[in-house]
Amino acid sequence: MEFTLDNGLRVVHMYDGDTATVVLTVLYDTGARDEDPAQTGMAHLFEHLMFGGSANVPDFDRTLDAAGGSNNAFTGSDFTVFYDVVPAVNAETAFYAESDRMLALAFSDRALEVQRSVVIEEFKETCLNRPYGGVSHALRPLLYPSHPYRWPVIGICPEHIAAVEQDDVRRWFYAHYAPNNAVLSIVGNITEERARALAEKYFGTIPARDIAPRRLVDDPWPTVAKCVTIHDNVPQTLIAMAFRMDPYGTRGYYAADAITDILSAGRSSRLFQRLVMGSGLFTAADASISGSEHSGYLILTGRVTSEADADIDRARAMLLEQAQMLAGTDPVTDYELERTKNRFEATTRYENMNLTALGANLAKAVYHGETLDTPIYRSLTAADIAAEARRIFIDHAPATVLCRPR
To answer: Residue 36 in contact with residue 151, Cβ under 8 Å?
Structure first.
């Protein structure tokens, strides 16, 4: 069931009578792509602040705990997602608490002070004190000279977060957090009639707001290779080689996703068999995609056994060669393509057996105007893989970061 409230909130419901719980998920159409370059990390900070209490629910966590529930959230470049898991008999508590913070966040000075410190410590932990934590900060600007994807969700630097004031928080809330900028998904042991009634009762009276316009100019795909070297407290050199790719929902996106699976999924993958097991030069090799609403990126990574410049250059060439070979000299086999499709199908089905994952996936599907089914992936052909490999790895140039030991 899908419907839209008068205030613009899109709602999707899926009944599951085999569970004793209900999962409420709210997806807000805002993330790091909406930030000011001089105030990055704001979307992630605000995710934390949403747990700081609202007009009628001063302690969000305690309210959910008292109902036997739990909750969490995550922020990306494109979306911010909150979810609550409660016993079905206490589903109304989740509707009440979640709607109250959409309506009227408390804007507590104490919460802002605490969460600024928490996010700054998280920045230090994940970017400054973790091996290879600075790679994303070095890589993204090479791929995106102007687009907000040029900084990670955590932000450019802790100083941006430290400078956030209460006026900044209020502006962010009223510019992005509104029913007409959100999707509500309701899954679990709750009937369609009750889900609709509770959505109308608690979310239906929240007024729509003017949403800040999103004016983004996508950067062109690079045709000239770029490379930077950073030195950090790491055990061995990491090669991170990234290529631009198509945005979510396009055929090129799914072809790129399949390419990374062919290259790196499992011990029978090409990178593991040929580079890690077969070359003696790699201790690890991987491939993945960013999965972005705008033009994202596909990244190849490898950790090498030697610190000699000649060996690192050779390792870069070998990593790139394995990707380029998919364009024709060593195309995907029928077996590899079928295995990739089967793995995708199994992973998707298994993931959606988890109600929290299902709730988020349903919300994203409604946002994209699609269903949980993904026919594009299943229809990919060997020709699609070869064409996309050529476009990504041969027709365009990589951005490379070498993270080397100090």
So the answer is: no
